[in-house]
Amino acid sequence: MSPKPKAVDAESILDAAAILIETRGVEAFSMRALAERIGVAATSIYWHVGGRDALFDSLVDRLLAEMDGLPVHGAGAAERIAALARNQRSLLIRRQHLLAIAHERDRTPTLFLPVQQRLAAELAALGITGTQAALVLRAIQVHVISSAVMQFSAVRGPQHQEEDPTLWTADWPDQELVAALQSPTDYDAVFEYGLESLLASLHELEEQVRAAPSSSA
């Protein structure tokens, strides 16, 4: 008696495809490799999710839903902005290959829109709107995205020293700095330092808003 065909559905196929892409990269992905991983015929995959393009579109749709549903917590706007930035960076690092697919399919602006709109709403709560809000929003997004790119580039790239010792002379006045620069970069710490620096003025503004007398007083 022949074995019963393995039951699959669209979600399980997309789950397997995401894992395959994240572990092997987009270039190594194929519908045949996906079928082998799941243990079904390729025709079953086409039946549930369509071809490669349709499958990639569905993966980007799921990534967009994740971006739209990022958890945000904090007592004030500045804390919520910080939480949103941290959670977005974490998601980008985890879904780096899916991000590349979204970019190739010209869906990056749509992908980042939910986060940008939530940032704009939090900035508006602090009275920051218009061109100033656009500048702050972009500064936060550039910091988040560039940090994520540097993080997964360092992880997947070849091992190397962060600094070439020969570029620093032995009589440099701050040898503790030289030694520190030659150690591996703590990208999480660098991100947190930059984020706190970016949000320092927002924390101050929030304190001013809280301390201001109520108009109804």
In short:
By secondary structure, the chain is mostly helical.
SSE order in H/E notation? HHHHHHHHHH
Task: Report the strand count.
Answer: 0
Q: Which class of secondary structure composition applies to the elements?
A: mainly alpha
Tell me the major beta sheet.
none
Number of domains: 2
Strand content: under 5%
Would you kindly provide a written description of the structure presented here, covering whatever features stand out?
The chain has two domains: 1-50, Orthogonal Bundle (Arc Repressor Mutant, subunit A); 64-157 and 173-200, Tetracycline Repressor, domain 2 (Orthogonal Bundle), CATH 1.10.357. The relative contact order is 0.09. Helix 1 packs across helix 2 (31-38) and helix 7 crosses helix 8. The protein is mainly α. Residues 1-5 have low confidence and may be disordered. The radius of gyration is 23 Å and the shape is flat. The chain has helices spanning 10-24, 31-38, 42-49, 52-68, 77-94, 96-104, 108-125, 130-156, 175-181, 187-211. The longest helix is centred in the middle third of the chain and has 27 residues, at 130-156. Residues 30-49 bind DNA. This is TetR family transcriptional regulator.
